[in-house]
Design a protein that fits this description.
about 260 residues, alpha/beta, Rossmann fold, 11 helices, 8 strands, globular
Length: about 260
């Protein structure tokens, strides 16, 4: 099992779209955990185009947690299928419940994730976490600390880089405390704006001190498959090739640092 944590520091650079794309193209069975506390499920209305009612969700997991019953079997019971070897747990069904989560809840969530390999009917899964935007004092710290790979998605304009600079110290502090400072990499989403300065990987990486896992081209048609359930992009498209590069880089980083569940009750 590996945990891959996706987040951003500003705007909407495509965290949810990338999380869905990684889950659907990951080289091993994968589970998408929609852990965004600023919105309800993007997946249900987006990629799945409203085919599922919002009955399976982190809200049900939170209720189980309040009753002291959040374990691997309960958590896996909230999954929906995205195809063979592909699963998702939709996000909270209401914003109030999402924003009300605490660090203790996410610590219990991590414990339930620990138990997934032994839960009823749960296969060995890599967990891809769609965390939306990071905020200082983020209650999802236990999940961040346990992740074997953290992908920080950012745009390439000056406001994007400014927001990255502002949030990076707090984010790095959390990773350093876990001994995982080197687990963080950037994913760049290229801006469509042609009238403003757009920074390149060779400019952003040295200035931030962060390695880059890859850069996604501006291709709304290709991305809309993962964000809105549109037709799948061509395997030869620039977006598909860039996505494959990000997956290859991240998977290589995971070698030797895969998460070993504690098996604690």
């Amino acid at each position: 099992m590996s945990i891959i944590y996706l987040t951003s520091t500003s705007g909407a650079p495509g965290v949810s779209t990338l999380a869905a794309a990684l889950t659907l193209n990951w080289p091993r069975p994968a589970l998408l955990l929609e852990a965004d506390v600023a919105k309800t499920s993007h997946l249900l209305a987006g990629y799945l185009r409203g085919q599922y009612k919002h009955t399976h969700s982190l809200t049900e997991a939170a209720i189980a947690n309040l009753r002291g019953g959040l374990d691997g079997e309960t958590l896996f019971g909230q999954t929906i299928s995205l195809g063979e070897g592909r699963y998702a747990i939709p996000g909270f069904s209401d914003i109030g419940g999402a924003r009300g989560t605490t660090s203790a809840f996410w610590a219990n969530m991590l414990r339930a994730i620990d138990q997934l390999p032994t839960a009823a009917a749960a296969p060995d899964l890599d967990i891809i976490v769609d965390a939306g935007r990071f905020v200082p004092g983020d209650p999802r710290g236990p999940i961040i600390a346990a992740a074997e790979a953290v992908l920080l998605v950012t745009g390439t304009t000056l406001p994007d880089i400014h927001a990255l600079y502002a949030a990076e110290p707090a984010f790095m502090t959390m990773l350093e405390q876990a001994g995982h400072a080197d687990y963080l990499k950037l994913v760049l989403t290229k801006s469509p704006l042609t009238t403003v300065t757009r920074y390149t990987q060779s400019e952003i990486s040295p200035k931030t001190g962060l390695a880059v896992a890859g850069a996604l081209p501006w291709d709304p048609a290709a991305a809309s498959h993962y964000s809105h359930g549109a037709a799948a992009p061509s395997k030869r498209s620039g977006y598909t090739k860039a996505l494959a590069d990000i997956i290859s880089t991240t998977d290589a980083d995971l070698a030797g640092r895969r998460y070993t569940p504690t098996g604690q009750d």
